[in-house]
Amino acid sequence: MTSSTSLSRNPRVRVTDVELLSSAWYVLRRTTFDYRHADGHWTTEQRETYDRGNGATVLLYDVEGGTVLLTRQFRYPVYVNDHPDGMFIETAAGLLDTDDPETAIRREAEEETGVRIGALEHVFDVYTSPGSVTERLHCYAAPYDPADRGEGGGVADEGEDIEVLELPFAKALEMVGTGEIADAKTILLLQWAALQGLFRSSSRPGQTS
Description:
There is one protein chain. This protein has four helices and ten strands; from the N terminus they run βββββαββαβββαα. By secondary structure, the protein is an alpha+beta fold. The strands form two sheets. Strands 4, 5, 6, 7, 8, 9 and 10 form a seven-stranded mixed beta sheet that branches. A three-stranded antiparallel beta sheet has the order 1-2-3, with no helix packed on it.
C-alpha cells in the first residue's frame, strides 16, 4: 500500500498519524487524518485499513461449448457471515505477491483450474470493499480449451482444496439470481460477459447449451 508520506494527492486530506495495529497475517493500520468538507470546515477522522496487497482474477470461458470455468472452496469469512456451508463459488483468483497482475493470474489460474492461459484480456480494475480493505483487484477474461485442461485443485502445501466447476454460462447467470454464486468479482465478470454478448447463443435464462 502507498505510504502515508506520499498521501498528498488530495489537498482536502492531511494524514497526521498512522498506527500499526496488527501484522500477524496481513497489515491492519489505524490512520488519523484531517478532512476538509465541501463547506470548507475541517474535522479530524480515524479509519482502520486492512492491507493484504492487490490481487487478480480471471473469467475462463469456452464460447464453443458455452461454458465458464469456476472454482469452489471453503471460505471461512463467508461461513461466519451466514453463508450456508462456506463452500464458495468464484473465479480463479489470487494475490499478486511480487508479480505483475498478468503473471500472477496466469499462475493462479493454472494452480487452481489446471488451465494454462494463452490470450488474456484485461477487463477492469475494482476496489471490492473500499470502506476498510485497500485491495485493488485486476480483472481479466481468457478463453480455455477443455481438451487442454490440467488437474488444478490448488497448492496442497498451502492448504488449498479447490474443486473445479465447468458450468454452462446461462446456468452460472441463473446461480447469481438464486444466490448460489454470491462472490462480487465473479458476478461482475459474468455480467460483463453477458453485456459483451460473449455467449450470444447461450445467455438466455433456462438454456443449458
